[in-house]
Amino acid sequence: MKTLFESTTIGSMNLKNRLWRSATWMNMADGKGHLTDRLEKVYLDLAKGGVGTIITGYAFVLEGEQPNPGMLGIYDDSFIPGYRKFTEKIKAEGANIIMQIVYGGSSTSFQPENRVIWGPSAVPHPLFKVVPTEMTKGNINTVITAFTQAAARAKAAGFDGIQIHGAHTYLFSQFLSPYYNRRQDEYGGSIENRARIICETLEAVRKEVGPEYPVFIKMHCSDDWEEKGLTEEESLYVALELEKRGITGIEFSGGNLDTQNYPNAGPARSKILKPENQSYFAEKTARIAEHLNVPVISVGGHRTPEKLEHFLNTTPIGYFSMSRPLLSEPGLVNRWKNGDLGKPRCVACGKCWGEDGNVCILDRKQR
Q: CB neighbours of 78 closer than 8 A, spacing ≥ 6?
């Protein structure tokens, strides 16, 4: 019987348990995207709290393309020395550290009027209302090159791997969606075409960092958006194509940000205190994982270790990542490991986000 706290390996990575910290925007980096002492402490507390593998909050790969304030950057070589010291500290605490890299696009409310924002097509974002500039093939090549260079920097800085952000309506997620992607060229139309930019990015990254360096992707099992979104069947197609091209593992999220028509259908959902409402992407993820050989990480509403071990032993899902529970309680994994399986401190209220940094509302009140 598999357990959450057994040691495993993924490629060159040794994992002390099956619990990951999913990428979370902390809004604590400096204005250029460099680490601050406050942000570094967040990750050190997570490592000391027992989580086996940490994925950083998303890091932007082009200097002029920052979808949120206070997020990490990885757009030039000036980041490498600071990140190298940082990764050494995290590894000394026994955790793996992976950098998530992103091009945000129109999924933003951060100074959109002052930036040129690219998208697959000039279609308004349903939540943020930003209309991007449709990308030329030259723009697409620029983004692929930026991801490739960012991956090389992350490797040079000592990160155990990188994760390409292909979820949550950021650029690569938009290419996969029929709503955002209305192109008539080889990057639009069929799912083969809509997935092309992601496949080409992975191929370029693999060529740069080599066949052994861990390269993950975060993508959707489904957008839950009917004809506007990526379907479960299309997600499987994309996953299989990425597997052919050397992806190390896939973290499956899901949902859409059309909050007016689909309330509580995004990636971070409320009203999940009852176990039957938790792990809300796991069943779709498991169906996709049945057809894959690479490791699969499930994210989305995980709260109950007994439920996670059920999925671990009855489905091909091998790992589970959490965001809000670890944001509220960075020592949660150690608590579970020590036998205290009580409910997490987090109640999924969604009030983590603030201009002074993204922290649990309980901690904000105490400051």
A: none
Strand partners, 102: 60
Cross-strand bridge partners of residue 99: 162
- For 5, 220, 268, the CA distances from 264, given in Å and listed in that order, are 31, 16, 8
Phi, psi of 181 (to 5 degrees): -105, 105
Residue with tokens 């620029």: 142
- Strand-pair partners of 73: 60
Count of residues in the chain: 367
71-103 pLDDT tens trace: 999 999 999 999 999 999 999 999 999 999 999
Residue tagged 């192109």 (tokens): 183
DSSP letters, 268-320, are: S-S---SGGGSSTTHHHHHHHHTT--S-EEEESS---HHHHHHHHHHSS--EE
Q: Cβ–Cβ contacts within 10 Å for residue 349, how many?
A: 12
SS3 letters across 143-194 = HHHHHHHHHHHHHHCCCCEEEEEECCCCHHHHHHCCCCCCCCCCCCCCHHHH
Among residues 251, 349, 341, 231, the alpha carbon closest in space to that of 292 is found at: 251
Q: Is the dihedral of CA 337, 340, 346, 352 positive or negative?
A: negative
Fold of 8-366: TIM Barrel (3.20.20)
Angstrom distance (rounded) from CA 67 to CA 69: 7
pLDDT in tens, 180-233: 999 999 999 999 999 999 999 999 999 999 999 999 999 999 999 999 999 999
The four Cα atoms 234, 239, 245, 246 give a dihedral, to 10 degrees, of 170
